[in-house]
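Re-run requested by the PI after the first attempt was lost when the workstation crashed. Everything re-entered from the original request form. Ligand of interest: iron/sulfur cluster.
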Amino acid sequence: MNTTTLKEVEYEQPEGGAVCSTKYAWARVPPEPAPDERERLKARIRRLLKEKNAVMVSHYYVHPDLQDLAEETGGIVSDSLEMARFGRDHAAQTLVVSGVRFMGETAKILSPEKTVLMPDLDATCSLDLGCPIDEFSAFCDQHPDRTVVVYANTSAAVKARSDWLVTSSCALDIVRALKDKGHKILWAPDRHLGDYIRRETGADMLFWNGACIVHDEFKALELELLIKEHPQAKVLVHPESPAEVIALADAVGSTSAILKAASEMDATEFIVATDKGMMHKLRQLNPGKQFYEAPTAGNSATCKSCAHCPWMAMNGLADVARVLETGANAVHVDPAIIPRARMPIDRMLAFTAALKNGQPAGALVPHFGAA
Ligand code: SF4
């Protein structure tokens, strides 16, 4: 793998202090409300959404209640690409983003005039934490001949230093188009996803050394044992997982691609290597099918996540109700960087919209060196 290690990715004692640690995140996960309290909170949220002209935008990895309530009230549950598009295009003045910090920031960059609220502003992401702007900017400065492609899971400042933004659902198409136009790529922050894309496209890619603590923990040997237990099962893997795990997959793709594969593949059993929050939607959409979690335990297991993102788990009903009521936890992005941070996001959204509409998306990618 063509990697350059500038900084070991650190979660437990980073410079940012306790707020960045997974232990802190797990300690902040809200308790499950009692059934009557749960119904009261949902009713309060429904009422507040109407009163405040607000809409819920939830990620597939958050608590099922936040997924179901978003859909029931006219919001969305989706991957980060669709969350960005939906938040930008929806008429509501307030977006309640249940997910992690970079998702709220992306919504704010795309809609600076809207109020973007999050249940917990400390909900972050190991990829974002592992890619601080100063070191990343220095890395980019060392490689001026490379086009900078960053994953959505980054800070607004890192986005503002990039040329293109991608999510796991469009990264292959965008990198392939860049390669076709003569670009060499500097990729950040997820090294597993980057290496998967390099293998698939043959693009010349230089990697930042980041990883998702959830997908990084899936274990190939234990997965092979589970496959032996369920020989009929198809294996669905998110490309943030290690290469040995991806090698065992019947389908590799983003959360949306995993959902599509589960409904379209000719199988009734699936082993799924992504955050277990996805199981809710997979089971909801495929009632006759069986889904098993891919293993994270075994030799060298760290169990920082055990297949569930602690920062995603910090989102809860009580905090959604509280922020809607009080306007607390509004996301702020420095207005000075918004126009520059928006540029790579707009490029991605234009590219994916063209792809969706059957237009020649590659035409939106300039040849390397073109103005
Ligand atoms: S699941 Fe991984 S990539 Fe997603 S927010 Fe959590 S740490 Fe980040």
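Saved to the shared folder this time. The chain has a mean pLDDT of 92.
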